[in-house]
Amino acid sequence: MTEEEERAEVLAEEGTVVDPRRLHEAGRIAEALVFASAGPVSEAYIAERLPRGVDVQHVMRALKGFYAGRGVNLVQVDDSWAFRTAPDMSFVIRTDETEVRKLSRAALEVLSIIAYHQPVTRAEIEDIRGVQTSKGTLDVLMEAGWVRFRGRRRSPGRPVTFGTTRDFLDHFGLEELRDLPGLDELKGAGLLSGRIPANFQVPLPLGEDELAEDEDPITQMDLEELGLLAPGGHDEE
Amino acid sequence: MTEEEERAEVLAEEGTVVDPRRLHEAGRIAEALVFASAGPVSEAYIAERLPRGVDVQHVMRALKGFYAGRGVNLVQVDDSWAFRTAPDMSFVIRTDETEVRKLSRAALEVLSIIAYHQPVTRAEIEDIRGVQTSKGTLDVLMEAGWVRFRGRRRSPGRPVTFGTTRDFLDHFGLEELRDLPGLDELKGAGLLSGRIPANFQVPLPLGEDELAEDEDPITQMDLEELGLLAPGGHDEE
Amino acid sequence: MQATEGKPQKKARGADAPMEDLWQEGAEGRGLSEESLVVDLAGFEGPLDLLLHLARTQKVDLTRISVLALAEQYLAFIDRARKIRIELAADYLVMAAWLAYLKSRLLIPKQAKDDGPSGEEMAASLAFRLKRLEAMRDAATRLINRNRLGRDVFARGMPEHIVTERRSAFEASLYDLLSAYASLRQRHAITQVTIEKRNVWSLADARELLQLLVGTVEDDWTALDHFMLRYLSDPTERTTAIASAFAATLELVREGRLELRQDGVFQPIYLRRGPKAGEGGEEGSAPRD
């Protein structure tokens, strides 16, 4: 049924004559109101905003018919109206999907230190932050796919070094690590205030694929040893 | 796949007739996807979820037309699509909570310079405005999500360049950057370049007829004063 | 905005107003009108902004302004500001010097072996910069008056979660990342800086001290330095103490509690009780007769 037919039907039912353009305008108003609202909109609320002399129920019924066969339906909940995606569309709209989470402040700090100071060890991260980094924070960043083991530092204990991934660059819209703004630019953008000591420096991060002079590449052995062979490594211990 | 479907697919690939039912179904899917989201949904994302062989652009264009006269419109934002209330509906929807970020005059000026001149460095912004960008101006624009670091200019010092975001387009109702008001005229007048365009009219420096009413023509006195202007200011009023 | 329905319409105005106010405020805050050239640079954002404002008073298209007249206006403005001792930022003075140079270039015939830019070139470049700035301001106005999301146009109020587009389940923008980094580094940088605490005498301190002194001052002239030194144990405090004390003395003189005398430049400053020395010291610290 076309919109035109629907309208004609409504009119026939009513037995009154309403200017069709006015009726169309009323439909547009109701539609916009329900669409923009954060919850179902009561019929009374809609009625208040319609042109005078237009019956809200007829407008809503016509709109409901208009959306009936579409990907989005207008549904009535008690005396209120709301838009819902059509029930048979659930295969595209998977509402059970996990929500996108905001990265915590701590994780952001650790991530930014890794980005700027890479290759960097956990001890160094903690030194820069001035607090201990919980294992969970690094895990989250690894899980997000933004941080990776780069290698091992040739120093006592051979600590693992961290760096960022290609996904990190993609996500943050950077072409290369050198695109990270430096000291002057951070200042210029108002992110760093003028009140910083003269010897304050922002490091230029070392590219993803270059190893630092005191860095060894990470090996399969290392990963196993660290017990961090991610999803695949469900090995019994 | 039936023979008929196969034929439809071949035709679709050729950009010709597609089974109308399939096209309708594709429209419903696209509609549901875009409707469900508050932010713009990328065309690539929609395309992945459409039945095979259906041209996403064709579907979106048809949908856009379908919603054109309604209270809710389908709009394009860069490579994405979103449903937005029709602009002439603003008077019904406005509520007390409706609040738009207020920008300072300076911030607004910087925003438009970034929009029209992007990619643009901070030094270039300052050259256009003739003043240093105060701390916090770029900061505010980035926090609003309208401005971003784009990359670095391949010039000495590799300065960071700024540009606008998709949220900027979305907020100001622009499909793409080319829709910026007056962009072509500004380009044509050479006002988006750093250099004076060849066709820029050189004002006649001695055009006395162009003096404003409250101005006096140059006198012999003035000529004598030349060079001494800075310190004294000996003339009486 | 059409429609006359009272309430939403008012709201509409209300929402628009701040944006426009912003602009109007900017224009009104400029202490410069065509009739009376009141000097107040507070409303201007630098010399180019001032020049653009002056250029607009010529009421012609910017490509047709008289750059020479503009230079004149600017220089006159700066002169006026200096006369009434407004402290001008360096960039205003640099522009003044440049315009004075431009003026000389425009007025004095070009020398044969002169390799600097010609006056015409300089004038053109100035006109270009003004035109470009004005164009950007116009663009900003047009931009801000578009139908804006959340003000004129609205998104779905009740979004449903769709399959996330991002491969990552986490969200963070480059801005989030950079501001986290900057504030972290800054926090630590600042805590490492210890600024040596300087002992500064506030004006109030000095006044209080002087009022105490006034009671002890005889009718004879006494040197100020002499007074100060008597109360200072730490020599590093001398400069600040004398400066504040002198300012406070002037205040007391104005109030008639003190009289000052200095015989010549760099000579010691003498003070003695003023005619109203005994009258109510408002802080209880001053002794009452």
From TrEMBL, chains A, B:
<dbReference type="InterPro" id="IPR005234">
    <property type="entry name" value="ScpB_csome_segregation"/>
</dbReference>
<keyword id="KW-0132">Cell division</keyword>
<dbReference type="InterPro" id="IPR036390">
    <property type="entry name" value="WH_DNA-bd_sf"/>
</dbReference>
<keyword id="KW-0963">Cytoplasm</keyword>
<dbReference type="InterPro" id="IPR036388">
    <property type="entry name" value="WH-like_DNA-bd_sf"/>
</dbReference>
<dbReference type="GO" id="GO:0051304">
    <property type="term" value="P:chromosome separation"/>
</dbReference>
<protein>
    <submittedName>
        <fullName>Segregation and condensation protein B</fullName>
    </submittedName>
</protein>
<keyword id="KW-0159">Chromosome partition</keyword>
<keyword id="KW-0131">Cell cycle</keyword>
<dbReference type="Pfam" id="PF04079">
    <property type="entry name" value="SMC_ScpB"/>
</dbReference>
<dbReference type="GO" id="GO:0051301">
    <property type="term" value="P:cell division"/>
</dbReference>
Automatic annotation (TrEMBL), chain C:
<feature type="region of interest" description="Disordered">
    <location>
        <begin position="1"/>
        <end position="20"/>
    </location>
</feature>
<dbReference type="InterPro" id="IPR003768">
    <property type="entry name" value="ScpA"/>
</dbReference>
<dbReference type="Pfam" id="PF02616">
    <property type="entry name" value="SMC_ScpA"/>
</dbReference>
<protein>
    <recommendedName>
        <fullName>Segregation and condensation protein A</fullName>
    </recommendedName>
</protein>
